[in-house]
């Protein structure tokens, strides 16, 4: 198996909705396993996501879960997910979807270093950075 590094996001009960949203944004194959499907006891948390994984046609892997009861959840406090490359059309498409319903901290526009760059937080509280390398804007 190839070694890979990918983000693993924690949610407070809305991991299914967030991962389905990311599947709409990026496409790919989404696998969701609930606490019940892993042998957890029935109860209010049985349908929460114990482990979710999205593998996209572009080679991205995004994993997520709902935190078990009793664990504190602090979204977006110590990370950002960065998308970068030179496919301006595809990156702008993702930016449009990710920023819809969220907040834009830095508009997607030409920056002093020459790239088109933007920062947003999606509607689930996840911060994103998008960088389109060497584009004319």
Automatic annotation (TrEMBL):
<dbReference type="InterPro" id="IPR004360">
    <property type="entry name" value="Glyas_Fos-R_dOase_dom"/>
</dbReference>
<protein>
    <submittedName>
        <fullName>PhnB protein</fullName>
    </submittedName>
</protein>
<dbReference type="InterPro" id="IPR029068">
    <property type="entry name" value="Glyas_Bleomycin-R_OHBP_Dase"/>
</dbReference>
<dbReference type="Pfam" id="PF00903">
    <property type="entry name" value="Glyoxalase"/>
</dbReference>
<dbReference type="InterPro" id="IPR028973">
    <property type="entry name" value="PhnB-like"/>
</dbReference>
<feature type="domain" description="Glyoxalase/fosfomycin resistance/dioxygenase">
    <location>
        <begin position="4"/>
        <end position="130"/>
    </location>
</feature>
């Amino acid at each position: 198996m190839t070694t890979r590094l990918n983000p693993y996001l924690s949610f407070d009960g809305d991991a299914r909705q967030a991962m389905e949203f990311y599947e709409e944004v990026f496409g790919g194959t989404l696998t969701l396993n609930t606490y019940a499907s892993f042998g957890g006891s029935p109860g209010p948390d049985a349908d929460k996501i114990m482990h979710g994984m999205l593998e996209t046609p572009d080679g991205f892997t995004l994993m997520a879960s709902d935190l078990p009861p009793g664990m504190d959840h602090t979204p977006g406090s110590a990370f950002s997910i960065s998308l970068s490359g030179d496919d301006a059309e595809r990156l702008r498409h993702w930016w449009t979807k990710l920023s819809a319903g969220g907040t834009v901290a830095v508009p997607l526009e030409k920056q002093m270093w020459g790239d088109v760059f933007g920062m947003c937080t999606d509607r689930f509280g996840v911060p994103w950075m998008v960088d389109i390398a060497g584009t004319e804007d």
